[in-house]
Amino acid sequence: MLDPYQLTVHTLTLRQLGTASQLAEVTGQELADVEAGLEKAAADGAVVAAKDKYMISPAGRTLLDEVYPTAFGTFRSSPQIGEAMDAFETGVNKQVLALTTDWQTKEVGGERVPNDHGDADYDAAIVDKLARVHEKTARVLAPLSAEDPLVDRFLDRIGTALTRAEGGETDYVSGVRVDSVHTVWFQLHEHLLRLTGRERPE
């Protein structure tokens, strides 16, 4: 697995731009550890600082490309994890992408139009379907979460977003300014790809 410094740099591949506290929220690391990692990474040239926010640099990506094969060797050589990833890509990931499209648009008169979220029943049905896919995802990814607690953290954050969406905070389905289902799902997917050395499907 990654050491704390490497994990801090890795987090900037999941959240492309963020403050120390935002990065700590992604991984659950102590804020002081993230701040120390970012300070070292900035000095090393692995990250670029812009006021209080950070982004990964080409040198940081090179660093991760060099450490991933060793840090994640167990994941990349496991047939069970490979099967779980196949199930993730062909099943729940496609379902979440389709439901996100259904959330953002709806069919009216045979055409897709933007969803104005005026139909509460339509929206509630999609949130309910997302919740069922979330439960299934936990089962699909069990072989990975058994080895990496960060996978469960992503699933917990998705669950939190779903709870807020169920309470009427519709931005928590696909909003980009909050830790929505869609935003955290993207982070989860990117983390899984880096664990397993796979490319994001087109």
Adjacency order of strands in the biggest sheet: 1-2
- Mean pLDDT figure: 96
- The number of distinct β-strands equals 4
Counted by DSSP, the helix tally is: 11
- Helix- and strand-based class? mainly alpha
Beta-strand fraction estimate: 5-15%
Biggest beta sheet attributes:
2 strands, antiparallel
The percent of residues in helical segments reads 55-70%
What sequence of helices (H) and strands (E) makes up the elements?
HHHEEHHHEEHHHHH
Q: Give the terminus-to-terminus CA distance.
A: 28 Å
Q: Which spans have pLDDT < 50 for at least 5 consecutive residues? A: none
Number of domains: 2
Protein name: MarR family transcriptional regulator
Organism: Pseudonocardia ailaonensis
What does this structure look like?
The protein has helices spanning 4-14, 20-27, 31-44, 58-71, 73-77, 79-104, 120-140, 142-145, 149-166, 171-174, 181-196; strands spanning 47-50, 53-56, 105-108, 111-114. The longest helix is centred in the middle third of the chain and has 26 residues, at 79-104. The radius of gyration is 18 Å and the shape is globular. The strands form two sheets. It has a two-stranded antiparallel sheet with strand order 1-2. It has a two-stranded antiparallel ribbon with strand order 3-4. The chain has two domains: 4-71, Winged helix-like DNA-binding domain superfamily/Winged helix DNA-binding domain (Arc Repressor Mutant, subunit A, Orthogonal Bundle); 79-196. The chain has 202 residues and is mainly α. A hairpin with a 2-residue loop joins β1 and β2 (53-56). The protein is built from eleven helices and four strands.
